[in-house]
Specification:
This protein is α/β, with parallel strands linked by helices. It has one domain: 3-Layer(aba) Sandwich (Rossmann fold), CATH 3.40.50. It is 32% helix and 27% strand. It is built from seven helices and ten strands. The strands form two sheets. The protein has a six-stranded mixed beta sheet, with helices on both faces. A four-stranded antiparallel beta sheet has the order 2-1-4-5, with helices on one face. Helix 3 crosses helix 4 and helix 3 packs parallel to helix 5.
C-alpha cells in the first residue's frame, strides 16, 4: 500500500520536474561539477531519449531522477512528489512504488529463478499475488518457457527481458533505462527495445532512455542532448 504522502493529487501533473539541479562531487583533484543547473519537465506518458558524449552527465541526471544520487542544489519532483529531501528509507519506498530502472548490466540475483527475480519487488511490497503478477509479466516479454531458469542459464537478451519484466511488474510511474542494449548484439538489442517500447505504450509509462544509438533516440517522441553537465538541445521528434 502506498504511503498517503506519496499519493498524487493531479494526474495531469508532470511525471518528472527538475528545478535548477546541480551536482558536485569531490575527487582527488578537487570538487567536480557534474550537473550545472538542469531545468527539465517531462510529461506523463512521454518517451524521452537522452543522448550526448560520455561524461556529459546523462547517467548522473538519471540517478538524480531515480533518487539514487542526491543533488547538491535544486529540487526534484516525481509524480507530483518532492523527493529532494526524503531520507533513504522513504526514497526506497518511493522508488518501489513509482520507478522502474533497467541498467546495461542486468543486476539479476544469480541464485534466484527468472520468476523469483521478477516477483522480488512485489514481495518486498507485501503483494499477495507477487508470483502470479511476475508470471504474467514474464509471459508478456515472451519468457513463459524460462520461468524456472536461473540467470546463468539464460542468454544476455533473455536476462535483459527478465530485467524489463522486473522493472514493469510494479507498474511504475516512470521507467529509467540506461543503455539497456549496451551489452547485447544488434538483433537481440532490437528485440529488447521493441519490447520496451511496446510495454511503455501499453502501460502509458513515462520513459527516460539513455542511449548512444541515434536510431533508438528517434523512436522517442522527444530527444534531449547533454554536454558538460547541462541540456544543450531539446527537440520533439514526432
Amino acid at each position: 500500500m502506498i504511503d498517503p504522502q506519496f499519493m498524487t493529487s493531479a494526474t495531469s501533473s508532470p511525471a518528472i520536474e527538475l528545478d535548477d539541479i546541480h551536482l558536485r562531487l569531490n575527487s582527488d583533484a578537487g570538487e567536480v561539477n557534474i550537473l550545472r543547473g538542469i531545468n527539465l519537465t517531462i510529461k506523463r506518458g512521454e518517451a524521452v531519449g537522452l543522448v550526448g558524449p560520455s561524461g556529459s552527465g546523462k547517467t548522473s541526471m538519471l540517478m538524480v531522477v531515480a533518487g539514487l544520487e542526491r543533488p547538491t542544489e535544486g529540487n526534484v519532483r516525481i509524480a507530483d512528489n518532492d523527493i529532494t529531501h526524503l531520507n533513504e528509507d522513504k526514497l526506497a519506498l518511493f522508488r518501489r512504488e513509482h520507478t522502474g530502472i533497467v541498467f546495461q548490466n542486468f543486476h539479476l540475483v544469480p541464485t534466484m529463478t527468472a520468476l523469483e527475480n521478477v516477483a522480488l519487488p512485489l514481495e518486498f511490497a507485501g503483494r499477495a499475488n507477487a508470483f502470479d503478477a511476475a508470471r504474467d509479466q514474464l509471459c508478456a516479454v515472451g519468457l513463459d518457457h524460462r520461468l524456472e531458469h536461473y540467470p546463468g542459464q539464460l542468454s544476455g537478451g533473455e536476462q535483459q527481458r527478465v530485467a524489463l519484466a522486473r522493472a514493469f511488474v510494479t507498474e511504475p510511474t516512470i521507467l529509467l533505462a540506461d543503455e539497456p542494449t549496451g551489452n547485447l548484439d544488434g538483433h537481440t538489442g532490437e528485440t529488447v527495445m521493441d519490447l520496451l517500447f511496446d510495454l511503455h505504450q501499453r502501460k502509458g509509462t513515462t520513459l527516460l532512455l539513455i542511449t548512444h544509438a541515434p536510431e533508438l533516440a528517434k523512436r522517442c517522441s522527444r530527444t534531449l542532448t547533454m554536454a558538460d553537465g547541462n541540456i544543450i538541445a531539446d527537440a520533439y521528434t514526432s
